[in-house]
Specification:
single chain, alpha/beta, Serine Protease, Human Cytomegalovirus Protease, Chain A, ten-stranded mixed sheet, globular, hydrolase, protease, Peptidase_S78_dom, peptidase activity, viral release from host cell
């Protein structure tokens, strides 16, 4: 089985705030993506139980690159709407700082899941209904598959001021140090 990816723009409830916390939906149930696949309610349950039993976690990556973790997902749960995630960007990691700045600027606004399909069936129109998935990772991405959702708010970890001020401070420090 090959690792697959599904992209979902961050939904209206998704925020970046309080210590670079990201929360929202990485996947929505019953919504066909641009590739014609629909994730069904309960598709992640068995995978999340297996991960928890093994002491594992769903990874937070940058653009699905396993060499570029940018944070940690502290909660990954299914509810009636979809796969809800809550985690934090690690701004001690260069890519985590960059991700925070790019989110603030609106240059990226997507989430994408990396998974393997365990159970699926085809519809009469050749589309897939995904009923069981092994979830490996949720990435921040540039191009999501579900274009109707957006990032709602972005805040930094100190006093709730916009991340733009943090990004400007980091850029000024970088210029002072003369680093590219």
């Amino acid at each position: 089985m090959e690792l697959e990816h599904k992209f979902c723009r961050l939904g209206g409830e998704v925020t970046l705030r309080d210590g670079h916390v990201i929360e929202g939906y990485a996947s929505l149930f019953g919504v066909a993506d641009q590739g014609g696949d629909t994730v069904m309610a309960g598709a992640y349950g068995a995978s999340l139980r297996r991960l928890a039993a093994a002491g594992g976690r769903v990874k937070m990556l940058w653009q699905h690159d396993p060499a570029r973790p940018i944070g940690v997902w502290e909660q990954v749960t299914e509810d009636a709407r979809g796969l809800r995630v809550r985690g934090r960007l690690l701004t001690d990691v260069a890519q985590g700082r960059e991700a925070a700045a790019l989110l603030e600027a609106g240059a990226i606004d997507g989430l994408s899941i990396g998974y393997r399909t365990r159970k699926a069936r085809k519809t009469e129109k050749g589309r897939r209904l995904l009923s069981e998935l092994d979830l490996w990772e949720v990435s921040l991405v540039t191009f999501p598959m579900l274009p109707e959702a957006r990032v709602q708010a972005k805040r930094d970890e100190t006093d709730g001021t916009p991340l733009r001020s943090l990004a400007a401070s980091l850029e000024a420090a970088r210029r002072q140090l003369g680093t590219p």
